[in-house]
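Researcher: We're teaching a course module on how sequence relates to structure. For the next exercise, students receive a sequence and then see the predicted structure as tokens, so they can try to spot secondary structure elements on their own. Here is the exercise chain.
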Amino acid sequence: MWRDLSHQWQIVFEEAWKAFGFGSTPIGAALFDREGQLILSDRNRSHEADTINKEISHAEANALRRMDTDKTDSRSVMLYTSMEPCPMCMGMILMGHIKTVHFAAFDDYCGMVHLTKQDPYYIGKKVTCIHEGGEGELFQLTIQSYYELRHLERGVSGKVLSRFYETNNKAVENAKKLYAGKTLDTLSQNGALCGEVFDIIMDM
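Model: And here is the predicted structure for the students to work with:
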């Protein structure tokens, strides 16, 4: 339940829920120092009006671009993200010298964490990637599957949703039930807090 999450994950999921409200891919990310203090947080901004290049406005990328490396040693920073980083974001993590990544949900469609154990260049960067799983993964894949269901209505391929089903079928089934009544849209429009939405999904 929401009260049981660390403050790091609460911040990340709050960003993901904000992204959902804007109609963007619901992914959030945040940077913390070694003591667990927040440096900054951000979200996917692909559907926000003032985003110039919507295709690459991913949560992790947005957070990393904003980090002031004159004031912060990137090697000491911990990146938390609600979804396994994609090829672009994983590249930025490596080139930005981030050494610790926590991610809530596996992305079997375009996640790149596996390369940290397979590719010589990635291995040499010595990035530790920690999968959270559990309730965090269930929440993330539920709201992101809901987002994908919107796309299905517009005629987009269901291949992403199929991969999510392989990872966590309960999340996809939750999303289908919620989408049938447009429940998450209503909650977002009514200003529901992320914690409320999180607990609704956990109670399903």
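Model: If you want an answer key for the exercise: The CA atoms of residues 29 and 147 lie 18 Å apart. The chain has one domain: 2-202.
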